[in-house]
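User: Here's a structure from my thesis project, written as C-alpha cells. My advisor, Dr. K., wants to see whether a designed sequence matches the one we expressed. Can you design one independently, without my sequence as a hint?
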C-alpha cells in the first residue's frame, strides 16, 4: 500500500496501518527475524492521552517468532487489545516476520513451537537497538521536536510452548473463530489445553478446557508433543480462570440448594453464553443441576460438540438464541400471564425459542452470564454492554426464584466501568458480592434476589462439601460482600 509522506507525524485516533518493508537486518539476527520482508503494523489509540500521560507516548513490540500468523498480531482488533493493555500509550508499533500466507487455512494442522525461539535479554536488547532507526520514522512530530528519541519495547509473554490450529470457521453472529490445541507451562507441569478464540477479539480466550492423550505412550505423557497424538476433552475440571469462581458463588445459597436435593429436585441453572460448554457440563455432571444453555451462534454450538465434548440431552439442554432477548421476552411473558389482554402476547409467542417456552418459563435458581463484548474499544471485554441495561437486569431478576442468584463474569480494564455496573446491579438486587479470579483481569459479581441467610454452623451440608471437593475452596472463602 502507498503511504503518504508525513503520514505518521500526528496521532490520528484509531488509525491502523499495516505494511511490509524489506528485511535488511544483518545475519546476526536472522534466526529471529528471518523472513524476506518484515511486517510493520501501527495503531493509534482511540482516545487522546490524558493525565498523568499528557504527551503522546510511542512504544514498540516485537511479534514473537512463530506467532506472526496469530490473530493477536495480524488483526486490528488484536493490536487494539495489546495497546489498551499498556496504559498511556498513544501509538503502538508491531514489527515481526511477514506472514507467508494470507489464508488462515494454510496453517491448519501445522504445529508451531514458541519456546524454541526465546532469546536471552542481551540478544533481544541488541535486536531492539538495531531496529531503533527504522522505528524513529514512525514517531509523531511533537515527540521528535521534544528531543525524546527512546522508543520503549513492550514484551508479549504468555505460557504457550507450542500449538496447532484444528479448525477455522465462520459463525453467523460471532464471525471467524478458531479451535486450537496448545501446550502450556503450568508451574512445574506441562498441560495440554484446547481453546476457542474469536477473530473479533483474538486476545480473549472464549473457552479453555484440559485435554488428555487418547492413549498412553510408553515413554510417558510428558514426552508427547502437540500433533503427535489425539487429545480428548477432560470435563471433570475447570481450567478457565473465572469459571471456578463462578461456580464458587453457589456457596452463598448452599443451604437452599441442599434442601432442593433433599427433596429430590434438581436446582435449575440458566447459562447465557455457552462457548465450548465446559461450564454447562460441569454444572450438570459434577453438581447435578438441571442446565439450560443459550448460545446466540449455532456454529459455536456445533464447534462445542465437535471439539469440546458438549453433549446435550437429559438434564443438559442447549438452545440457539439471544440470551438477553430471551430474558426480556420472559419478563414480557410474565406480564402477559398477569394481564391476559396484553397486546404483546402474539409478538412474544412468535419467537423461535418459544417452541420450548416451558423450559424457560419455570424460574431458575441460578443465572450465569458469560457474554463477551463485541468491541473492546469501550474498555470492557465482558459482559456485553447490552446486559448492563437496567431493563435487562430487571428481566433477569424476574426469571430467578425467590432465593436465586445472578452470576456475571466481568472483564474490564476500566475500574469506573466496573463500578458503574455495580451501581446498576445495586439498583435492582438485594445484595451484591464479588470474587476476584486472581488473574488480574476477571471478577465475578453475584447479585441476590433475597438477603443471604447463612446456614447454621452445626448443620451438615453435603452439597457444600461436594462443592469444595470439585473446586478450590479458596474461591469460596474469598467471596466479599460489596
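Assistant: Designed independently from the structure alone:
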Amino acid at each position: 500500500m502507498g503511504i503518504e509522506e508525513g503520514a505518521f507525524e500526528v496521532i490520528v485516533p484509531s488509525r491502523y496501518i499495516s505494511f511490509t518493508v524489506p528485511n535488511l537486518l544483518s545475519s546476526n539476527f536472522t534466526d529471529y527475524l528471518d523472513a524476506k520482508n518484515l511486517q510493520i503494523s501501527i495503531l493509534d489509540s482511540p482516545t487522546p492521552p490524558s493525565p498523568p500521560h499528557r504527551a503522546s507516548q510511542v512504544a514498540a513490540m516485537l511479534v514473537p517468532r512463530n506467532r506472526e500468523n496469530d490473530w493477536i498480531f495480524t488483526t486490528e482488533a488484536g493490536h487494539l487489545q495489546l495497546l489498551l493493555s499498556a496504559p498511556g500509550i498513544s501509538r503502538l508499533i508491531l514489527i515481526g516476520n511477514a506472514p507467508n500466507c494470507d489464508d488462515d487455512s494454510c496453517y491448519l494442522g501445522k504445529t508451531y513451537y514458541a519456546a524454541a525461539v526465546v532469546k536471552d535479554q542481551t540478544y533481544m536488547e541488541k535486536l531492539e537497538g538495531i531496529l531503533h532507526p527504522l522505528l524513529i520514522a514512525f514517531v509523531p512530530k511533537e515527540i521528535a521536536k521534544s528531543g525524546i528519541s527512546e522508543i520503549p519495547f513492550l514484551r508479549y509473554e504468555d505460557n504457550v510452548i507450542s500449538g496447532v490450529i484444528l479448525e477455522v470457521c465462520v459463525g453467523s453472529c460471532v464471525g471467524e473463530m478458531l479451535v486450537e490445541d496448545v501446550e502450556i507451562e503450568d508451574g512445574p507441569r506441562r498441560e495440554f489445553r484446547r481453546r476457542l478464540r474469536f477473530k473479533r477479539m483474538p486476545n480473549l480466550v472464549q473457552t479453555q478446557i484440559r485435554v488428555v492423550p487418547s492413549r498412553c505412550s510408553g515413554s510417558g505423557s510428558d514426552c508427547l508433543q502437540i500433533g503427535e497424538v489425539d487429545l480428548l476433552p477432560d470435563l471433570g475440571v475447570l481450567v478457565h480462570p473465572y469459571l471456578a469462581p463462578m461456580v464458587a458463588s453457589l456457596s452463598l445459597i448452599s443451604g437452599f440448594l441442599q434442601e432442593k436435593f433433599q427433596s429430590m429436585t434438581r436446582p435449575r441453572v440458566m447459562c447465557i453464553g455457552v462457548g465450548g460448554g465446559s461450564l454447562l457440563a460441569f454444572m450438570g455432571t459434577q453438581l447435578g443441576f438441571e442446565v439450560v444453555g443459550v448460545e446466540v451462534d449455532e456454529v459455536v454450538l456445533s464447534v462445542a460438540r465437535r471439539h469440546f465434548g458438549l453433549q446435550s440431552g437429559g438434564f443438559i439442554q442447549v438452545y440457539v438464541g439471544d440470551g438477553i432477548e430471551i430474558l426480556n421476552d420472559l419478563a414480557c411473558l410474565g406480564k402477559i400471564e398477569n394481564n391476559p389482554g396484553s397486546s404483546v402476547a402474539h409478538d412474544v409467542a412468535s419467537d423461535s425459542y418459544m417452541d420450548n417456552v416451558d423450559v424457560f418459563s419455570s424460574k431458575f435458581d441460578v443465572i450465569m452470564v458469560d457474554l463477551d463484548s463485541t468491541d473492546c474499544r469501550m474498555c470492557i471485554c465482558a459482559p456485553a454492554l447490552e446486559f448492563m441495561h437496567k431493563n435487562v437486569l430487571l428481566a433477569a431478576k424476574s426469571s430467578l426464584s425467590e432465593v436465586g442468584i445472578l452470576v456475571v463474569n466481568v472483564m474490564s480494564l476500566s475500574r469506573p466501568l466496573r463500578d458503574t455496573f455495580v451501581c446498576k446491579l445495586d439498583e435492582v438486587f438485594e445484595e451484591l458480592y464479588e470474587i476476584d479470579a486472581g488473574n488480574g483481569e476477571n471478577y465475578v459479581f453475584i447479585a441476590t434476589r433475597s438477603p443471604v441467610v447463612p446456614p447454621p454452623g452445626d448443620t451438615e451440608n453435603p452439597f457444600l462439601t461436594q462443592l469444595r471437593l470439585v473446586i478450590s475452596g479458596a474461591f469460596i472463602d474469598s467471596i466479599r460482600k460489596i
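When you compare it with your expressed construct, this may help: The first strand starts at residue 16 and ends at 22.
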